[in-house]
Amino acid sequence: MGVHTDQEAVRILGMSVDDSRKGQVTLRSLRQAGPAAVKPEEAK
Question: How would DSSP label each residue in the chain?
């Protein structure tokens, strides 16, 4: 293992949590907008 392995793991985990949160926010906004907000090509 390298010297920065723990730091890199924490960095990647932080990015993953951030991306997950952004996805939740996007889904919540789509849900509030209703089914008309999703275009057929995006639903695939």
Answer: --TTHHHHHHHHHHHHHHHHHHHHHHHHHHHHH-GGGS-TTT--
